[in-house]
Amino acid sequence: QSYLWLCLMQVVFIGMMISSSLWGNISDKYGRKTGLKMSVMWTMYYGILSAFAPVYGWIIFLRALVGFGIGGAPQSVTLYAEFLPMKSRATCILLIEIFWALGTVFEVLLAIMVMPTLGWRWLLGFSTVPLAIFAVLCFWLPESARYDVLTGNQDKALATLKRIAVENGVPMPLGKLIAARQEDRGKIQDLFSPQFRWTTLLLWFIWFSNAFSYYGLVLLTTELFQAGDACGVSKGQRMEPRCSMECKYLTSDDYKDLLWTTLSEFPGLIVTLWVIDRIGRKKTMGLCFLIFSLCILPLFACVGRTALTVFIFIARAFIAGGFQAAYVYTPEVYPTATRALGLGTSSGMARVGALITPFIAQVMLESSVYLTLSVYCCCCILAAIASFALPIETTGRGLQESSHRQWGQEMMGRNSTSSGGIPQSSSGSQD
User: Fold this and answer.
1) Tens-place pLDDT, residues 105-150
2) With the CA atoms of 239, 241, 246 and 249 taken in that order, what torsion angle do they form, in degrees rounded to the nearest 10?
3) Nearest 10 degrees: Cα torsion 393, 396, 397, 399
4) CA–CA distances in Å: residue 140 to residues 24, 37, 44, 64, 137
5) What is the pLDDT, as a whole number, of residue 179?
6) What span, in angstroms and rounded, lies between the C-alpha atoms of 86 and 77?
7) Cα(150)–Cα(148) distance, integer angstroms
8) C-alpha to C-alpha distance for 189 and 179, rounded to whole angstroms
9) Buried b vs exposed e over 327-340: b needs ≥16 C-beta within 10 Å?
10) Which residues, in sequence order, are bridge partners of residue 233?
């Protein structure tokens, strides 16, 4: 049963891994809003069907299709980032990530209420309700003005900007839109141009490590909580803890501790918000990885349940913060022509990490807790080095529009100035 459950979780990540780049390509070629709507509709449809799966084979197939749809979720960050001004982009992207944590808490609370009485089918059904609400509301979403300018739709981009101005009760900035049209959008080879080759490779490893460690810690939490007093003392000798990897229902105390560790993502977000514009994106990611590794080290000792919960709380806070910092950095570093694809491929690498981590957090854990913890600790140390080694720091830099152009500044009015009084020019977006 344990391996059947493992397979059920794996197929979701396989679906996400396969589709992430595809949704990025669709969003670069046909629009951010189009890709996002398609992925949401897909996820909701197969999520509802999953609740009616008659046999195990069908649930495996349908959950893989759900994962395929979830692979397009990161494109919401692409769409959002392209509307944000430079000075508040990091803050706004991090604040929207609150809803990732809220969704996690919602699912834990839903499981506490539904699983003991109604069972897993109702849990899957109720889990699609937020998707249904978004499916209705997403028709209100505008398309990215940056994307419209890049595709030569200046009138549509201008209409979007006018709508924003009206809804915010402010006048339109002076100037006119200038097309920076580029037909060859969403090409994978652009991610490996001399300007972005090392950035892409390092980012892929950073995203891999984020998901590998984040989901690994989530799995370790339930396994270590279920193990309870597995770390004991026998005849004065400290014994290495072992986990039986049995499929057991979580107790109320397990759910309570799981909820506490899930809530840790909120202080992690607050810390990331405070440091990301002060020390930069690269150092923020590196710092989060290092603190995660430091919090894993005490688990090598036979700590009690309270100390275990505290260290897992801190570790999850910072690995979640590192994940959020990567969501800020990745859309900023790539140009509009390949931004969705860059985020999509990075997200795909994250799913590779999520796909591998159950074999470490559960299968390897059955043999050795120490070896399992060592793998996560070493991986995050390497990811910290990769973060510091990134060649581009995006703090204080505008979004690049075309992959054929150099770094540009934000779309701002002719009379706008920065905080230091320096006029802000455009990279072919506005004159």
Assistant:
1) 788 788 878 877 888 888 888 888 888 898 888 888 888 888 888 8
2) 120
3) 110
4) 21, 11, 18, 29, 6
5) 61
6) 15
7) 5
8) 24
9) bbbbbbbbbbbbbb
10) 238
